[in-house]
Design brief:
By secondary structure, this protein is α+β, with helices and mostly antiparallel strands. The protein folds into 3 domains: about 160 residues, Alpha-Beta Plaits, CATH 3.30.70; about 55 residues, 5' to 3' exonuclease, C-terminal subdomain (DNA polymerase, domain 1); about 150 residues, DNA polymerase, Y-family, little finger domain (Dna Ligase, domain 1). It has 15 helices and 13 strands. The strands form 3 sheets. A 5-stranded mixed sheet has the order 5-6-1-7-8. It has a 5-stranded antiparallel sheet with strand order 11-10-12-9-13. Helix 7 links the parallel strand 7 and strand 8. It is globular, with a radius of gyration of 23 Å. The chain starts with 9 loop residues before the first strand and ends with a strand. About 5% of the residues have low confidence.
């Protein structure tokens, strides 16, 4: 039987400057310094910034040029997405040893419902200390934990405890705590909503909580009731451990528009390996492969093809993507972005339909061996030989 929301104990665990923290494991000399993870190209954005940079105003998703003006002394590190995913898998594995009710929100963030673990592991603050200690001792990474009676308040707690902190908002203190905060602490209140509320004389959560719902709905539409409920600490949503992905993909925005077909095919190779690795990590396989191409004028083309048999092999994804690229014919202009996506996912049961080509099995075995090596050495740079030499002009913004 699922306990009612008021009786739950929910954690929000958020890694601190995750990409930067992973990079500092192999670059300890940069600890305490200004560090930015992202590509150096003019079109690139900040993926992660150390707290030394954040104090200067640098934020994730900020254009790299603006970030460099704010922090001209910062060291910029190229992202290693494979390493970040590897550490993410290990972090989530630790969470699942605490409770099976883990809802992964992003690569470095999750909600945990530990209600059923209290008898086995003790009080909430003690469990929070266990989680933080294990992540630091086993992985060398800092994490912040917020604890509350529901997901929203747990998120508030973790935000207030950052960086590298632990905060529990007890159920009986929830409303009093929330009412000390500005309205910007509520989910769904961005700059525009805050401006609307400000013109109505509402700047604190306590003021919003005392405003009639009818008034809030007149100001904010259907979002008014939602914010009113949050202002009183009400969030009935359960922690949902299964978040079904309908597709898995990766794309690259180039620093300079690309004419060269060889460069595009090499990028497809890299993206195919990234997508295939994510498929295998999630024990999924794709029945359809989609190609995305965006030209210099932002015209975007997509093509897809259903496979004869589902796959999580980079070799098979690449073959389909290259065929789709060729089917587009002569390109009218240079390419700004290219991407691959595996769609119509199903569970991979470990088996596959063998073909008459021995090379298919060889490719699969090679890719699985690469997975094993990456898990053993997550900060390494194992990749196909064709990708080892990559010119600066090919580097852009990855997603």
């Amino acid at each position: 039987m699922v306990p009612p929301p008021a009786d739950r104990t929910v954690f929000h665990v958020d890694m601190d400057a995750f990409y930067v923290s992973v990079e500092l494991i192999s670059r300890p000399e940069l600890r305490g310094q200004q560090v930015i993870v992202g590509h150096a190209g003019a079109r690139s954005v900040v993926l992660s910034a150390s707290y030394e940079c954040r104090r200067l105003g640098v934020r994730s998703a900020m254009p790299m040029g603006a970030a460099r003006r704010l922090a001209p002394l910062a060291t910029v590190i190229e992202p290693d997405m494979d390493a970040y995913r590897s550490y993410s898998l290990r972090i989530m594995a630790i969470f699942r040893e605490i409770t099976p009710l883990v809802e992964q929100v992003s690569v470095d963030e999750a909600f945990l419902d530990v209600t059923g673990s209290l008898r086995r592991l003790g009080q909430p603050l003690g469990i929070g200390r266990i989680i933080r200690a294990r992540i630091r001792d086993e992985l060398g990474l800092p994490a912040t934990v917020g604890i509350a009676r529901n997901k929203y308040v747990a998120k508030v707690a973790s935000t207030r405890a950052k960086p590298d902190g632990l905060l529990r908002i007890a159920p009986e203190d929830t409303v009093a705590y929330l009412h000390t905060l500005p309205v910007g602490a509520l989910w769904g209140v961005g700059a525009k909503t805050a401006e609307v509320l400000g013109r109505a004389g509402i700047s604190m959560v306590s003021e919003l909580a005392q405003t009639p719902v009818s008034t809030l709905e007149r100001l904010l539409g259907s979002n008014g009731l939602h914010l009113y409920e949050l202002a009183w600490g009400r969030d009935p949503r359960p922690v949902e451990p299964v978040r079904e992905e309908k597709s898995i993909g990766a794309e690259e925005t180039f620093a300079d528009d690309i004419h060269d077909s060889t460069v595009l095919r090499r990028e497809l190779l890299r993206l195919a390996h990234r997508v295939a690795q994510r498929l295998r990590e999630s024990q999924r396989q794709g029945h359809t492969v989609a190609l995305k191409l965006r030209y210099a004028d932002f015209t975007t083309m997509t093509r897809s093809r259903r496979l004869v048999q589902p796959t999580n092999s980079a070799h098979a994804l690449l073959e389909a993507a290259e065929s789709l690229l060729a089917s587009l014919g002569p390109r009218p202009q240079a390419v700004r972005l290219i991407g691959i996506r595996a769609e119509q996912l199903s569970t991979a049961d470990g088996g596959f339909q063998p073909s008459f080509e021995r090379s298919d099995g060889n490719w699969r075995q090679a890719e699985e061996a690469m997975d094993l090596i990456r898990r053993r050495y997550p900060t390494g740079s194992l990749q196909p030989a064709a990708l080892i030499r990559r010119s600066n002009t090919e580097k852009g913004t990855q997603r």
